Amino acid sequence: xxxxxxxxxxxxxxxxxxxxxxxxxxxxxxxxxxxxxxxxxxxxxxxxxxxxxxxxxxxxxxxxxxxxxxxxxxxxxxxxxxxxxxxxxxxxxxxxxxxxxxxxxxxxxxxxxxxxxxxxxxxxxxxxxxxxxxxxxxxxxx
Length: 142
Fold this sequence. Notes:
By secondary structure, the chain is mainly β. The chain has a single domain, classed as putative beta-Galactosidase from caulobacter crescentus (Chondroitinase Ac, Chain A, domain 3). About 5% of the residues lie in helices and about 50% in strands. Strand 2 and strand 3 form a beta hairpin.
């Protein structure tokens, strides 16, 4: 298996991919970015880890938009999302799974995430101290 950064670089070579890097300078301040008509808010405080036990070096990530899929890579981030257009349709989680890229750059899915891991579809969480990649497909509803 490729290491974390090598596995991402192979996938990013493909066309039509947009990447936003999110690295906190202050752990208490969420970052906002838009990709694919969706506004993402990225929190850097892990809600399940006591705040005094969190180290800023364990928080940060990438949001990648490739075709109909989003890839969240990193650690110590909690990502929420909403439609970028006020009053427009809302995005929901259709699919969320952990995985890795093999030596040929092919996605190898791991654990499928459900409501327990996505807080009933309200967020994507990458725990601190556990660098990982999650593939997420969203759908739209009104």
